[in-house]
Structures are given as C-alpha cells and as structure tokens.
Amino acid sequence: KAGVTQTPRYLIKTRGQQVTLSCSPISGHRSVSWYQQTPGQGLQFLFEYFSETQRNKGNFPGRFSGRQFSNSRSEMNVSTLELGDSALYLCASSPRAGFNYGYTFGSGTRLTVV
Amino acid sequence: DQQVKQNSPSLSVQEGRISILNCDYTNSMFDYFLWYKKYPAEGPTFLISISSIKDKNEDGRFTVFLNKSAKHLSLHIVPSQPGDSAVYFCAATTQLTSGTYKYIFGTGTRLKVLA
C-alpha cells in the first residue's frame, strides 16, 4: 500500500513569506503528526491531528499552524518565515491518535528560507 | 529541557562487529521506548521498541536493552552491515493527562559501518 506522501519535496522561500506543506497519510490512518528536524536538535514535535482536530501541540510559536481534512490529509502552514525555520519537515501517520507504537514517516519536505 | 539524550553524535564500527547505540532519559514515567533508523532524503523508519515493563527485546540482528534504574536504553546491532549506516534516533512516549501519548525524540547518532 502507498506510504505517507509529502509534497513538495523541496521548497525555497524568502524571509517574511508564508508556506504550506502537504501530507497524505497511509490509507486508513486517521492521525497525522508533524515534526521539524534540524541539525543537532533531532525531531521536534509540532502538532498532531486526529479527525480534523488538533490533539497535541508542541512548543512552537503561533506562526506554525496546521489543519486536517475529512479525508485525513493534513497541511502545515508557517507564516512570516524566518531563517531559523529552514529545516526538514516530516509528517507521520498512525492508525489512531496518541499512538504509542511505531509511526510511519514520509520522506519530508526540505524548506530553505533565504 | 532535552528529556531524551543521545550523547554520541556519531559512531564508526567495522563490518561484522557489534554496534552499540546509547540513549539516556530523564523522565521515569515514559511508557514505551523506540528506535528509528533514518537514511538521507528519507523519513525515519521504525526499527524496534520496548515496553517500560521489560528489559530486553530482540528482533533478528537488533536487540534493545532497557535499564530503568539507570534510565538508559541501548540498541545492539550484531553483526553490523554496511547497509546499517544511517542516523539512529531513540524515542520515548509518555502518556498525557488527556489519555493520549506524546513522542519525544533524541537528537540522533550517525552510525557508519566500515566495509
């Protein structure tokens, strides 16, 4: 079956712009989580959506937001981009919310802010 | 506050030998511990996990050990193969008051297996 699909794979934006990243989870998975990966910081949790509702939220500023649609696809939006937002953004899906076991991750979207 | 720490950013091992990746944590309430492997340009792949009520879990060449008193987790790969060269992340889950779980990842250790 198809894995977790993230689009686009690469993105270059300038400071002050906004960006929207997309994630399609594995069919049947209803929970989608977003992570930011930067060198030396590991994977930092952004938020988790389940049934179109945000269930958990990490420690990121309000410029980072997301949403989930009825078909479980999710989008993440970052407004007023800063240079420090350059990172690999990963999406992970799981069958249910607050999953305790192995997530399935997408390949990520590499965002570069110049 | 980094609750899950991987203090070795990199590790090199000869092919055929044992690779030992370490992870320390601070929160004694963690329920589950997991290891993920990540190749460049790919998302992390779930490798193996262990419940906090166990001290060992084995899956083929991969074994995870949990020492709760030391708050220490390790992943052993025996024998190591060049294809094991990747970044390894340990992760821990903790139950929130809402009843859901939250993942906390370490910063990763880059393993290089030399042929």
Give the helices and strands, then pairings:
The complex is a heterodimer of chains A (114) and B (115).
Chain A: E1 5-7, E2 10-13, E3 19-24, E4 31-38, E5 42-50, E6 53-57, E7 64-68, E8 74-78, E9 87-94, E10 104-105, E11 109-113
Parallel strand pairs in A: 2-11
Antiparallel strand pairs in A: 1-3, 3-8, 4-5, 4-9, 5-6, 7-8, 9-10, 9-11
Chain B: E1 4-5, E2 10-14, E3 19-25, E4 32-38, E5 45-51, E6 56-59, E7 62-67, E8 72-77, E9 86-95, E10 101-105, E11 109-114
Parallel strand pairs in B: 2-11
Antiparallel strand pairs in B: 1-3, 3-8, 4-5, 4-9, 6-7, 7-8, 9-10, 9-11
The whole-number mean of residue pLDDT values of chain A reads 91
Oligomeric organization of the protein chains: heterodimer
Specify the helix fraction band of chain B. under 10%
Given the helix and strand composition of chain A, which structural class is it?
Answer: mainly beta
Please indicate the percent range of residues of chain A in DSSP E strands (runs of 2 or more): over 45%
* Mean pLDDT figure of chain B: 92
Instruction: Report the C-alpha radius of gyration of chain B, rounded.
Output: 14 Å
State the helicity of chain A in percent bands. under 10%
Can you summarize the main beta sheet of chain B?
6 strands, mixed
Shape of chain A: globular
What characterizes the major β-sheet of chain A? 7 strands, mixed
The shape of chain B, in one word, is: globular
Number of helices of chain A: 0
Distance separating the two termini of chain A:
37 Å
Number of strands of chain B: 11
Runs of chain A with pLDDT <50, length 5+? none
Helix and strand element order of chain B: EEEEEEEEEEE
Series of secondary-structure elements of chain A, N-terminal to C-terminal? EEEEEEEEEEE
Coarse structural class of chain B: mainly beta
Q: How many helical elements of chain B?
A: 0
